[in-house]
Amino acid sequence: MTFSIKPVAVALSLAVALPATGFAQSDPSLKKAADARQAAQWAGNAEEWGKYTTDDFLVTGADGMVKTKQQRMTEIAGHPITTPAASATDDRWRVYGATAIRTSAVVINGKPTRLTTVWVTQRGEWKVAAVQLTNIAQP
Q: Do the beta carbons of residue 130 and residue 118 sit within 8 Å?
């Protein structure tokens, strides 16, 4: 059986699959959660990915479409990612107590894209609450 992933699904996969760097010394548990979530997504393991995602998670794609945790889990389940990871630039993490915000830039489907990922702690565990993708305007 051949499976085709829409470009938006690939973009969302790349958006949250970028390596977690630059903050390990400030909070090793955040790096561990980010790495585990990324590994689960790349392996197509939606259940494991969901452990690092809030129940009310929303992702807003660069096209303005919003998807829920369950919609993303359906896209991820059983569909490992085999394309190379996109290299993030301008990757920055800011931690504010129980909230962390990651911003970065990456090229997705040939388009420069800005990513914002919001991590929160729930019951002592880091989870992603929201992801926003925005295409970067080209002159």
A: yes
DSSP string for residues in the chain = ------HHHHHHHHHT-S---S-TTT-HHHHHHHHHHHHHHHHT-HHHHHHTEEEEEEEE-TTS-EEEHHHHHHHHTT----SPPPPPEEEEEEEETTEEEEEEEEEETTEEEEEEEEEEEETTEEEEEEEEEEEPP--
List, in order of start, the domains of the chain with CATH numbers.
7-135 (3.10.450.50)
pLDDT digits (tens, 9 = 90+) for 48-95: 999 999 999 999 999 999 999 999 999 999 999 888 877 788 999 999
Model pTM above 0.70: yes
